[in-house]
Amino acid sequence: MKFRPLHDRIVVKRIDAEQKTAGGIIIPDTAKEKPQQGEVIAVGPGARNEQGQIVPLDVQVGDTVLFGKWSGTEVKIDGEDLLIMKESDIMGVLEHTAAQKKAA
Fold first, then answer.
1. Across the strands, what pairs with 76?
2. For residue 71, what are the domain limits?
3. Were both Cys, which of 6, 61, 71, 75 would link to 89 (CB 3.0–4.6 Å)?
4. How far apart are CA 47 and CA 26, in angstroms?
5. What is the pTM of this model?
């Protein structure tokens, strides 16, 4: 199934949180919080302004974004847990430096 969000909605796939703390302590699943960052999977065409023109979104497919703990609506599409949220629910886009891209 293919899903296309409408207006200023965005489909985000959560990025799993680290399994260990910086000190090396393994975090059990029951103690983990839901990650508040994810990868943009799909974006809508944009919202309309007062003149009726479509204003494109600032985020693009592939961006890594930060969002609020309770942002969006959780859905399951093709067995994959995703979030659908408005662009206004996103706090910002994480920029990756060249060194981070090489490490990945």
1. 81
2. 9-16+26-93
3. 71
4. 43
5. 0.71
Q: By C-alpha distance, which of 28, 12, 2 is closest to 86? A: 12
| pLDDT beneath 50: ranges in the chain | none
In this structure, what token pair is assigned to residue 43?
């974006």
Q: Give the pLDDT confidence score for residue 86 in this predicted structure.
A: 92
Q: Distance between CA atoms of 86 and 65, rounded to whole angstroms? A: 12
**Dihedral angle sign, alpha carbons of residues 99, 33, 12, 46:** negative
Distance from CA of residue 63 to its chain's centroid?
A: 8
Into how many domains does the chain fold?
A: 1
21 assigned to some structural domain: no
Res 28: pLDDT? 60
DSSP the chain: ------TTEEEEEEPPPPSB-TTSPBPPGGGPPPPSEEEEEEE-S-EE-TTSPEEPPS--TT-EEEE-TT-SEEEEETTEEEEEEEGGGEEEEEPPPHHHHHH-
